[in-house]
Each structure stands twice: as C-alpha cells, then as structure tokens.
Amino acid sequence: MDSLSNGLLFLALALPFLAAVVSPTAIILFGRFGALVLALFPASALAILFQQSAQVQARQSILFGIDWIPAFGVRLGFRLDGLSFGFAFLILAIGLLVVVYSIGYMPKGSRRGRFLAFIFLFMGSMLGVVLSDDLITLFIFWELTSITSFLLIGFDHEREAARRGAIQALVVTGGGGLALLAGLLLIREGVGVTSMTQLLDSPEILRSSAIYAPALLLVLAGAFTKSAQMPFHVWLPNAMEAPTPVSAYLHSATMVKAGIYLLMRMFPVLGGTALWETILPLFGGVTLLVGAFLAIRQSDIKLMLAYTTIASLGLLVMLIGIGTEIAIEAAVLYLFAHSLAKACLFMVAGSIDHGAGTRDIRALGGLSRKMPVTFAAAILGAAAMGGLPPLFGFLAKEEVYAATATADVTGVLTTIAAVGGNALMFAVALMVALKPFLGPLPTGLRRAHETNWMIWIGPLLLGVVGLLAAIFSQTTHQFISNPMSPPDPSGALAVDIALGFHLGPALILSLVTVALGVGLYLRAARMRAGVASVLASIGWGPDKGFDQAMRTLVTFSFHLTNRLQPGRLDVYMRVVFGTIVATLWITMVWTGTLPAMPAFPRLFFYEWAVIGIVVLGVLIVVLASSRLTAIVSLGIQGLAVALLFMLLGAPDLSFTQFMVEILSVAILALVMTRLRLMPADRRPWRKILPEAFLAVAGGVGFALFLLAITQRAFDPSVSDFFARYSYTIAHGRNIVNVILVDFRGVDTMGEIAVVLTTAAAILALVRIRAAKPDVRHSRKRRRRSGELHP
C-alpha cells in the first residue's frame, strides 16, 4: 500500500475528531448552516473509504498504521476489509444524517456546538473500533465509545434521570470493557499475537490453546455488555434519556453494534466450538424474546424502539452463535436492514415529539394530515423493521428463517424464538407507524405541525435507501453484503438473494410472522396490560438490581473507608504495613519460593562486634522508657549499617549513611520535643502485641525475601553496562557517583526536592505548634487588661 493511500485512510479516521474540534466554532459562525459545513467531514471520510471499495470487494485486506509503543509490541494498527468497511459505511453515512438532524432538532441555546462535538467524538471512536487491527488499539477506541456515550446520554445533566442513565451505561459497558481488556491481554500473552490479522491468519491457534475458554468468556462479557444482552440490557432503555439524535445514532445503528462487530470479527477465531454454539444462541434467543415482550409493555415510542433494538441485537447474537455460512450471511443482511430501519424510526419518534409535543402513543392519533412526510418515513421504516416487501428488511428476514429452519433441536428452538420475536417486533412497528398517524386527531394536538426539513430529511432518506437497497439488491450485495460475509467455498458470491417470493419454509415462516404481528397489533392494549401484570408479579428485575448493587457498593465503600482511613496515623501505618507483610508472606508461601536457609559464615571479631551493636540497639529501642530515648537509640541501627558498608569496601556509602542517620535522628528528636505527645508508650500489652507481631513478621518477611533474591542466579548485564560506560559516556571512574549524578540525575534531583519539601513541612509544623501557646497566653493577657471581652 502506497504512502498516499495510507495517509488518506489516516485522514478518514481523523476527520471526525477534527470535526469535533471545530464544531462549536462552526455553529457560532454559521448557525444552522454550520451543520452543512460539518456534514462535509463524514462525507469526505466516506468518499475516502469508497476509493478503496474495489480492493474491499476483491476481499483484500488493507493494513495501515504506525508504531506506537514498540517496546511492548503496541501499534496504532488498522485494518480495512469487507467487515470493517460495512460497519464504517453505516457509522459515517448515518452519522452524516444525524448531524443534519441534530441541528434541526436541538433548540437554540441548547449548546448545539458542544453536542455536535460529542457526536463527532463518538463517531471517530466508533470508527476506530471497527478499523482497529492491534488488540490494544481496539480496546482504547472501545473505551472511548463508552466515555463519549456517557457524555451524550447525560447531555441534559440537569435532569436526574439523564445522569442515572449515563452512569448506568458507563458502569455496565465500562465493566464489560475491563473484561474485554483482560481477554485481549490473555490472548496476547497466551498465544503471542498482537493483532487481529495474526489471529485471522492462524485461527486454530486460539481454539487449540488452553486459554480458549477464559478468553472466550472475557470477550463475550465485553460484547454482551456493549450490545445489551440479557441481563446487561438494562442500560439501553435508560439511555433513552439522551436527546433523540443520540438514540437514533448510538442506540440503534452504531454503539450497540460494537459488540456485534466484535463477535463477527472474532467468529473465525473463537467460533465453531460447542461453547460458542451454546452460549451465543442461548443468550441471544432469551434476549430476543424478553426484549420483544418488554417492548409491547411500553407506551413511550422511544422506549418501544429501545426494547425492540435489544430484541434485534439478541437475534443477531443468536445468528452469529449458530455459526453456519447462511447464518452469518443472514446476520449481515439483518444488521444492515436493522440499522437503516431503526435509525429511521428513532428520527421519526423525535419528529413526532418535536411536532406534536409528546411521544406517548396513547395520546397520539390523526397526525397523518398534519405531518405527511413524517408519516411516509414511518411507514417505510416500519415496513423494513417488519420485513415486508419490497424493503431490504424482507430479504434479511427471509435469510434469517433460511438459517434457523433446520431439522435438529437447535433449529426448532431458534426458529420458534425468531418467529416469536419478529412477530412481536412487527406489532410494535405497526404501533409506531400507524397509531400516531391514523384515527381522529386529539384536541390537544390541533397545533401539531410538520417539522423543518432538517428533521424529516434524515428518516425519509433512510426509508428510501431501505427500499432502493432491496430493489437494487445486487449492487447492495456487491458493495456491502458479500464483502462482509464469509467467502463461499465454491468461489461463487455468498449472498445473491433478490426480491421475489421464494416458495419454501422461509416464506411460510415469514407469512406466519406477519399474521402473528397483525394479530398482536390488534390486541395491543390487552397485550400491554398482560405484560405489565406479569412484570408487576415478578417485581424485582435487573434494573432494580443495578440500583441495589450501586447502593451496596457505596455503603460498603463508605464503611471500608471509615475503617481504613479514620484520620489517625497509627491506623494508616497498621494498614500499610499489614498489606506489605501479607503480600510478602502470601506470595512466598503460595508460590513455594521460600528461600533455603544459608550456612552461617565464619566471622571476624570486628564483624561480631557490629552484630553485637545491632542487637544492643534493638534491645535499647524495645526496652526504652521514653519515646525520645527510643528514637535516639534507633540511630544505632543506621550506624551499624554504615559500619557494614565500611567493612565491605564502600566508604562513600558508609559516609552517606552516617550523615543520613545523624540528620534523621536530629530531625526526629527536634520534632518530638515540640509535639505534645505522651513521653512514653502507656498502652496495655493487648494493644502492643499485635503491632509487635506485625513488626517481627515484616522484618522476617523482608529478610526471607532478600535471601530469596540473593539465591537466584546473578544477572551482571546492568553492572557490566555501568562498568563499561561510566567513564566513556559520563567521564567518571566512581561508578556510584556517576549513576547518581549522570545516569539517574533527574531521579536524584527529585529525591533532593522531596527531602527539601519534607524539611519545609516539618519546619512549618514545628513553628505552628510552638506558636500556639504564645497566642493563647497573649489573648489571656489582653483579656485581663480589658482589651478583649469574654
């Protein structure tokens, strides 16, 4: 790949971030026309991607990137192939329409510039997710989508519901992101690969590894939380507190598809096993049915669409879990159809809210005369969502049933789930498209009106694209469906389905779905009441469970903080030293790395004298009757260490140790004489013994740790380096001095700064403590003289 194409693809990735920077200024300077200027950024990125469409259609992968942290094998590496191209197309194309829609939807004075900046930041983050090749790069962009969605969901931060929805989305998807990070690191360390390309080139390397099961579960945790699978689905309905453009973009076409993208990307590597083909269909099928049933319960149009989005995501996960070629092809078609239809209907919901002043379906009716363009867009979106011809959703539904309708038990169960879920979603689509627009116009909606063109152009275009994509299905398959689908073993095009009635099980199941959907629509009120009574009888649910978990976490953190950080220095010291001791002993005992006891060496008399000084100093410290005596005696240990340095041939270190000990004892003694402390430790033995045990365990633990280190094979590479280069580079023969002054001069300067800062703090404390009695006596004298009144 030439440098020009590499640079253009980097530009395509950077354009949304550049748009985020200029969005506030563009809105200030150009007002509503600023949206048209800003729309050029995703349009330009889309044009750059289409320049590579010939290679993508030929199933050629385009790799580009730069080294980021070579020492750790981390690279800003990206991969453009059929799968990433299809997702990038949806991200940029729908994002372009959302930008225009946002300007028409958001009222003046609603911080449009900031809102669009967040939208573009999310767009760039999502584009980075689907283009990332390096595993660490993928995680970084993955978490950026969680952060930017948090900003968008909580954009109306004055409302408590918006803040709760934003925090819930961040906690759930962020927690899944941490699981994904653990899975990616496990893959990196377990099989030694750092990129998706390496995994896809050797797909068996992970399936045959001992880390396959934990890696799969961790990756699924990340994907399921992002794509709102049961029981992690609760964040998506609550995210509807965000402005409608956010719902149309993040929660229908892009962010919730990140988990689907990850599963489709990792399918060649993780799929094809019993674990994969059990977990995904199970979670996907349950999510499909539960999401569809909960959608019937709602009366707010956005919430109805949110729960059908959860159901659709469950259907996609189920198809990917089935894992056959036709199932993956069905997932590709359904992904494309769902993104167009659901973004269209969310925009319709915003248009209804903007023009009629409410989204409550029970209060709506007769809007077709007031809002004919929005009505047309709603019909197109609902027909696509319900899988009616001649919309692209019809092709997707036919392929879904062709994938599930098999004779085995799994095929029967997945077909029942698919038919039931699709029928429920079709009923909801009819409710959204017909109930607000047909029938008499309520008195309260007399002033309802069609919205401005910036609001209705987006859903109408998406509906028309869903129609044209089906009419010109071969072109759609050429650019989108076939590059995203796995290649056919025979070399033929994998996807070639076109409009027409294909007699067979798929058509029969499709007709059954339509009939069930119409029947459920006609009994919508009874269904809503029935689902509501079931939910009321159940009571507890994941959403309430999230609140309980958060309250438990806050309560536990409060009590733990009060216990570990009560504002007392002695408690802090016990916690710190207790943690250190536990780490030393548990690590050595658990891993079986306790050192072997060395033979006691033969010592000279002066070495015995130093040992005697150490023992004497310990006894004096322990038996000292006052704190001041104990501090002064503590300096004996430092002097003994200085003597050891001298005996072992390091007079410079010995001199430094002498100076440090003398200065430390002097400072501590000075502080002790100025602080109001008990002259001696008067605590009972029951309080002293635990600390004595902690001190002995710490001392012995460190001694064993140092013995274990010294018993390992010595690596002379660092010593040889300094011996070789101390004189040639730093022009000094004293290696210790050269290390301190030259090789780690900045570190030494930092240590000096720390010592000076500590000295200044000690001096300030001493002066404050010394000044307080004088101030108190001065106030007493002034009060006696009559200058102050009690």
UniProtKB/TrEMBL annotation:
Pfam families: MbhD, MbhE, Proton_antipo_M, Proton_antipo_N. The chain crosses the membrane at residues 29-50, 84-103, 115-132, 138-155, 167-187, 207-225, 279-296, 303-324, 330-352, 373-392, 412-433, 453-472, 492-522, 571-591, 603-623, 630-648, 654-671, 692-714, 752-770. The keyword Transport applies. Residues 132-410 form the NADH:quinone oxidoreductase/Mrp antiporter transmembrane domain. Residues 613-676 form the MrpA C-terminal/MbhD domain. Keywords: Antiport, Cell membrane, Ion transport, Membrane, Transmembrane, Transmembrane helix, Transport. It is a multi-pass membrane protein. NCBIfam families: PRK12647.1. This is Multicomponent Na+:H+ antiporter subunit A. It comes from Aureimonas pseudogalii.
